[in-house]
Amino acid sequence: MNKYFKKLIPNKVLSNFGYTGIRPKSFVAQNLDIREDIATKYAYDGDLLDIFASNQGPLVHKWHHYIPLYDRYFGQYRNQPIKFLEIGVAEGGSLKMWRRYFGNDAVIFGIDIDPACLQFNNPDGRVRIGSQVDKEFLLDVIDEMGGVDIVLDDGSHHMQDIRTSFDYLYPMLNLGGTYIVEDLHTSYWRRYGGGYGMKKNFFNFVRDSIDDMHRWYHENAIKNSAIAENCSGIHIHDSMVVFEKKIVYQPVSSKVG
Description:
Blueprint (H helix, E strand, L loop, with lengths): L10 H6 L17 H9 L4 H7 L12 H9 L8 E5 L5 H10 L4 E6 L13 E4 L5 H11 L2 E6 L5 H11 L3 E10 L19 H12 L11 H6 L2 E5 L2 E5 L13
Parallel strand pairs: 1-2, 1-4, 2-3, 4-5
Antiparallel strand pairs: 5-7, 6-7
């Protein structure tokens, strides 16, 4: 999560971010029992809740509704030798969280532009310093990892960066893999290159991707061949979009009986 959200968010600051809706004083939980809040609101009490709520190591900062969503989409990969890449290291706590969640067989890497994040380079997760829009850097990291099964983009949250990373990394994602972009509330904030109704709002790319998934049923041009050929599902949640990568076959139907 962007460091901006560690602090209270007064109305005048939100307005500078191009936030034009109702301006809450803060999105940050105040005096909440984290475990109870997540379990009660989202009917979730899985292992990841305990891992997150009981963290005593480096800081990990996540929106509460993300925790059950992570488990929904990542649960299939637990205790397997999967290859996981997180864009954005920040305080390093999420790498430790993912190590506890995925198990010792997982290859876990995090990338960040801040050299200070190298202090979190350890067996929990390998940290590499570079830009999420540097194609050669990304290629080198994926090569070092031996491929990639999961990408979690929790990086700059800027529209152009999100899209550039996706264009580079989704084609490299292994079949059966999952690509998640989170903190997409920034799609509505001008400071991040977004804005309601703005062309570069990432959700416009999502809409185009939905059209590409349904290419069988219209005659319009495909905008992203990687989506058209190898995306079996797109799931939209509050501030999060999940892309599932599988071979896509032409649909067929049958009449039985």
